[in-house]
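Lab manual, section 2.4: Encoding a predicted structure.

Procedure: take the sequence of the chain (203 residues), apply the prediction step described in section 2.3, and record the output as structure tokens. A sample record is shown.
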Amino acid sequence: MSFRMLSPSLLTGLFLAVTTVASAQEHPFLADHQLTELEGGIRIDWTILGGSTCDGQEVERSNDGLSFSAVHRIDGPCGDPFIPRSYGWFDPAPPEFSTVFYRVKLGFDGYSSVKSVRFDQLVISDQLFFPNPANDQATLVLNLPASASVDLLVFDAQGQEVWELKNNSGPHISLVLAALPAGLYTWLAVSNEQRITGRFVKV
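Recorded output:
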């Protein structure tokens, strides 16, 4: 029987592969851990297995999956010596239009796995117009309920109304700008008594 030595680069690759698989495993205390995008924020739910306990918990959030900071804390004993215990928290201010990462710190007993969810909503800003400058197409996102009806007015640099879109469904409005000449424009969105305004450049 003969043996072949593995090269250092192959050994490094195998080590990284094992590390990646190991880091994706769930904490042995947890039976469930999930994220749900809801209107206006993200909910994180987790369940500690019966017989598992810890002292204090923290929900940590990250923009890149590497650097985390605590955004919610539950003080006191966690888990139960006899039955599973479920916990949840609603994050009302996740980073807008980004992939958001979360993990749960179980006292001194380590962390849950890292999970992520895409959050394409506005919760703090009134509006987002992208891309800006725009070419032939753009998207306007408004901080309004999905059921909102929106009238959109567009004005040129001289303040003259050049475009009107009635009864759009919020909060995402797709815009076809091919008919507009290049220049600076101001837009006004009206929904019930709410008025939101902004500017964009057509190139």
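Check your result against the sample. Helices lie at 8-23.
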